[in-house]
Amino acid sequence: MPRTRRLTAARLGPRDVLHVGSAGLRSRPVRVVLSALGIAIGIATMIAVVGISASSQAELLRRLDALGTNMLVAEPGEGMFSGQEVKLPKDAVGMVGRIAGVEKAAGTGDLRSSVRRSEKIPEAETGGIAVKAATGDLLDVLRSGLASGAWLNAATGRYPSVVLGHVAAERLGITGPGRQVWIDDRYFTVIGILDPLPLAPEIERSALVGWQGAERLLGFDGHPTRVYERSSDASVEEVQRLLAPTIDPQNPQNVSVGDPSSALKAKAATEGAFSTLLLGLGGIALLVGGVGVANTMIISVLERRHEIGLRRSLGATRGQIRIQFVTESLMLSGLGGLAGVALGGAATGVYAASGGLPWVVPLWAVGGGFAATLAIGTVAGLYPAVRASRLSPTLALATA
Predict the structure, then answer these.
(1) Nearest CA to 303 among 384, 369, 366?
(2) Is the pLDDT of residue 1 over 50?
């Protein structure tokens, strides 16, 4: 007897898979857009949340790099006895400046004075503005600039002149140098206004008077209340250990040493902690989009029974039918993912531009988000694909 040759189904190449998988998308463009919209919203939310958080963190790190993390501040701590007033030595700034590794040191001293726009304003209405004596190197140690005007020098620091922190200037309604403010019993001329100082917020809310001028005109006793120092990065820890014993060898516990940059470091480290909630909401939106894709695919299977029956009658295998509908689901979710990545990146860009932040969208967020859409597309398309492959060709053609 002659041997009968067994018929085998033709294999589908990648191009054929893409062609048959996109057929349903091309024939129903409106449904495709609406189904992909849910995926796009979920991915856009996730990309925007991560991008905005990363942009804010990059700005904080940029500011830290500009301001430096090598500044320490020493101030009076609490004395051994309750209510004891602790004062730093008059030569505390000079003592700190002689510590090995310290590059620059400066100090400020609190004054029992108030600053007002004029003598006609009640003395109690201080606006929360402190008056401080300042040494000449303070601006260099703080790495601050001037929004306008000039800093105190050996000449202006001896006379009734003052430099305002930017918050103090706003509260006093002073927009530039040349104006006068009332301190204690006389007018002081404003010669400068400082830029913002995130590492020294107490300076932002202060009116700064020269050290000698404060002693001569405002009764300053010469004891600094804060000593600021800059040291090399390699010696920060050693300087921090030596600051208190150097300033007060007999009672080092009376000196408190702090790192102003620690607040910005902590903020940069925790930036995005609140974003976890928003990421969760984006994930829920993504799952809802996946459910929408699955629903669309199930309806597509029901509407295309005639097509499925015809392909099965012409020799298409169940596996090829499954591949067709899984591919269609993947393409549908992939389109939504691409749109979501674009929308999320655009939203991050708008936020960054409006706030003057660097535009940062981590690659892991883009890759992870798009991979999530493909995974959801695969899962959403499995059941409709299996259901389509199990349709009987005869019944599918008969009920079409």
Answers:
(1) 384
(2) no
